[in-house]
Amino acid sequence: MTAASLGRGWRLAAILVLGFASGLPLALAGQAMQAWLTVDGVDLATIGFFGLVGIPYTFKFLWAPLMDRFEPPFLGRRRGWLALTQFALAGVLWWMAQLSPASTPQLFAVAAVLVAFLSASQDVVVDAYRTDLLPEEERGLGASVHVFAYRLAMILSGGVALIWAGQWQSWPRVYLVMAAIMAACGLVSLLALPRVAASLRALDSDPKKELAGFAAMLAGVAAGYWLARSVLMLAGLDPNDANKWIQLLFVLAEIAIALPLGWWAAHKVGFETLNRSLSSYFAQRGAAAFLALIILYKLGDAFAGSLTTPFLLKGMGFSQEEVGIANKLIGIWLTILGAFIGGLIMTRLALYRSLLVFGVLQLISNFGFYVLAELGRGAWGSVMLPAFDWGVISLHEDTRLDLLLLSVIAGENITGGMGTVAFVALLMALCNQRFSATHYALLSAFAAVGRIYVSPLSGVLSESIGWPAFFLFSIVVAAPGVLMVWLLRDALNRLGRPAPATAMDD
Fold first, then answer.
1. pLDDT over 50 at 261, yes or no
2. Rounded CA gap, 343 and 501, in Å?
């Protein structure tokens, strides 16, 4: 074996570990956490509000420039940030395991927000490290390895975790195991990752001014939050009103004012790395329209998927083991299958046609959840899954899997995987290589807007109108994304035919 092949194997092994570390925390602040909340007896609207703990995924581009600009000592800019975020994630997951979502909801929410913040920060560095480490001829294979490892981690934290929780009757024990796995990933980052090229240095700017700009941005966000809250309270509204719609109004108003005010403060004080990277993106023709497309394209999927776990557990009465096997284990493998199918199709179709066709398929797949909500469990019969013991995961007794549930999950995940392929190809095509870390963080943050911000609305809406009407509404919400693809067809065609991606890592 040559030195070149050994080096390539080392690089791809590093990408495998980091892809796994990147995918592990997502469900722990999302679907797995929703299952824990549901089992602990938390009401549906509150579970919807807990979806807001993922807000850091939509803001990560605001601190991504700091991780580009500053270098932790000894380990280097990328490896240092990786080790720091991964050990911190392990610590917060351990703390989260000590809490109860029912008896200490505020502390539990703080811990979940910290998990999401550190996970989003880790994603920024993983994306940048992968770009810096891999030579151009290895990036396609490296992307496939990353996606495979990312989805494998999601199977563990989103699917296997539900099975463990059902068998152990303990979600805290599950989170302790996840904390130990994350600590092991941190050790690999600390001791075994290859270094990136020494020539890949941070952008040259005044560090004091960068920190001052970041501090000003935080102050602007805090001021916007306080201002929105104060105005609504002066209007006679109570943020703790029992009416969930009033609570939702406070949340949306606080976000709507805090973010622009934070951006304005950062711009005025001079957060140079952020300002330069964002100016570079918005200099592109149609930049704002592309951001609208990025938000809308997955919005229908976000609505349908925002409360899937509570819907299946509480609304349909499926067991944690059945949901874990069908929705998480089988579902994520089907997402990978859909991504590969989409990648093959994209070798024949240009970006515009791929986005259009896959977007329509995503919209149609949401109808399956409406059918499940109307017909209920058992409508199409079931299939028996025999007991098994694979060491890491086992099923102690034969379990029935609902055929309608499996069909709905298959349609949603395969079409979702196909849509994600084209979607990631779009994000890659819009990135300027000089600012790729911050640009990708910006675009993927906007991509997460639907997944994060529809959650509180979904919780309130599903309680108000019922599950069947809720899923019909998700189909209506998906339509504007498809329409935006058609309206931007000329601009999408000008982007050319980027190399197909395999899946989105968020």
1. yes
2. 6
The highest-level CATH class for domain 1-194 is: mainly alpha
pLDDT of 498: 42
pLDDT of 505: 38
CA distances from 387 to 89, 355, 391, 393, 474 (A): 34, 41, 13, 11, 36
What region, left, alpha or beta, does residue 41 occupy, with left being phi > 0 and alpha being psi -120 to 50 degrees? left
CA distance 193 to 291: 34
Q: What is the pLDDT of residues 460-503, one digit of tens each?
A: 788 888 999 999 999 999 999 999 999 999 888 887 544 444 44
CA distance 57 to 78: 19
Name the architecture of domain 284-385+396-506: Up-down Bundle (1.20)
Distance in angstroms (rounded) separating the CA atoms of residues 390 and 15:
26
Segment 79-114, tens digit of pLDDT: 888 999 999 999 999 999 999 888 888 899 999 999
So where are the chain's domains? 1-194, 206-282, 284-385+396-506
Q: Which of 69-78, 125-134, 196-205 has the lowest mean pLDDT?
A: 196-205
Decide if 40 contacts 102 (C-beta within 8 A). yes
- Write out the two tokens for 280: 């570079």
Of 475, 462, 470, whose CA–CA distance to 366 is shortest? 475
Query: Is 284-385+396-506 the same fold as 1-194?
Result: yes
pLDDT tens, residue by residue, 399-451: 788 899 999 999 988 898 888 777 877 876 776 655 656 677 778 777 777 66
Do β-strands 399-402 and 382-385 pair in parallel, antiparallel, or remain unpaired?
antiparallel
Distance CA 211, CA 250 (A): 30
Q: How far apart are CA 443 and CA 428, in angstroms?
A: 9
State the Rg of the chain over Cα: 22
Q: What residues form DSSP beta bridges with 383?
A: 401
CA geometry: angle at 171 spanning 170 and 173, to 5°?
Answer: 70
- At position 261, the amino acid (one-letter code) is L
Asked if pLDDT for residue 506 goes beyond 60, the answer is no
Cα dist from 73 to 10, 77, 78, 83, 206, whole Å: 23, 8, 11, 12, 18
